[in-house]
Specification:
The chain is mainly alpha-helical. Helix content is 72%, strand content 0%. The longest helix has 43 residues, at 28-70.
């Protein structure tokens, strides 16, 4: 400990001098061993650097290739002289894609983000309570419940679509509404998506339940026993003791739930097709059947003389970047927190 304190107080030049003095006292065999260790360490660091650089290039290459397409002038698309840097920068592709995918302007994206945030909050709240119950409350068929939740994650959601559609098309609140001789049609209503999240059938919600269940199993039972001695009941123990300790799992599930619900096109297409969802707008706008119409709009809106299939591809790529913008911003602010919490959330180990 004393030598470490002395080393911290020395300047870099003094440390280098001291290191040379120590190396001069080594025997020939020790010098050979030290050289081999340094060579092996340098080789491993070089291999690691090359692997990370290669992976980063593979991941970023599609985005890099988007630059000459979405930032070029429409008339320069397909120019063989343009490889990486456009000859003439233009934002026409972005403006046209935003106008096509966001009919209400920025409010379309705001509503889509708000929807994902509400569903995220519901899924975190319901999944956390369900996961805690599975991990801590023991009853006769508790093991069977875990198997059912796991099966819900493994069963393709397409196999449940027909039953869900019929149920929400003739929604009777478990038979309560039939007593009054009525039923509700919840198709094409955002309430359907909220109800699915409340009932545990949101996007990948069974996975979230398993994450919370695994996390709560790893929390020592002594915390609950101490809370019980202090007079806390079941619910107070959960909200005052267990939830604050489950922040890593909550953060992980919240981020995953937001990303998956923001990009969902399956449930939104069937249960609320006219809703203001960016993913659905993107999926239904840039299809081949609309190609001629979209290209004609670009020519009229921005006085472009000629449009080609490359123009249509540039519009699609610009629309994808606009859609990804909130996710990229969220990742820039939350990536460190997400990476740190993944290791303790139950996804590994």
């Amino acid at each position: 400990m004393a030598s470490k304190a002395v080393n911290k107080s020395l300047s870099p030049a003094a440390l280098a001098k001291k290191k040379r003095e120590l190396q001069s006292r080594l025997s020939p065999d020790q010098k050979i061993y030290l050289a081999r260790r340094q060579t092996a360490s340098f080789g491993m660091n070089l291999i690691t650097f090359l692997l990370i650089t290669g992976l980063c290039f593979v991941i970023l290459y599609p985005f890099i290739r988007l630059v000459p397409s979405v930032l070029s002038a429409i008339e320069d698309l397909g120019n063989p002289n343009v490889i990486w840097i456009p000859e003439k920068f233009s934002t026409v592709s972005f403006r046209a894609a935003a106008r096509m995918t966001m009919p209400e302007g920025i409010m379309t994206m705001v509503k889509s983000i708000g929807f994902a945030l509400v569903i995220m909050a519901i899924q975190v709240f319901i999944s956390a309570m369900t996961g805690y119950t599975m991990a801590r409350v023991k009853y006769r068929f508790s093991g069977l419940l875990f198997v059912i939740v796991a099966l819900c994650f493994l069963v393709p959601r397409q196999s449940l679509l027909l039953a869900q559609y019929i149920y929400f098309n003739h929604f009777d609140a478990l038979g309560i509404l039939r007593i009054f001789g009525t039923e509700w049609n919840l198709i094409n209503q955002p309430a359907t998506l909220y109800l699915m999240a409340m009932l545990g059938f949101g996007v990948n919600q069974s996975l979230f339940v398993l994450i919370f269940s695994q996390f709560f199993k790893n929390i020592p039972k002594e915390l609950e026993e101490a809370a019980l001695i202090d007079g806390c009941g079941f619910y107070r123990t959960y909200f005052r003791i267990m939830v604050p300790n489950a922040v890593p799992a909550i953060v992980t599930v919240a981020i995953l739930a937001f990303v998956w619900n923001y990009g969902d096109t399956y449930y939104t297409r069937y249960f609320d097709p006219s809703g203001p969802y960016m993913a659905s707008k993107l999926a239904t706008t840039f299809i081949d059947a609309n190609k001629v119409t979209l290209l004609e709009r670009v020519r009229v809106w921005y006085n472009v003389p000629v449009t080609t299939d490359m123009t249509f591809d540039a519009l699609k790529q610009a629309g994808i970047l606009i859609f990804l913008a909130p996710l990229l911003v969220m990742y820039l602010f939350a990536q460190r927190w997400l990476v740190e919490n993944l290791e303790s959330s139950g996804l590994v180990g």
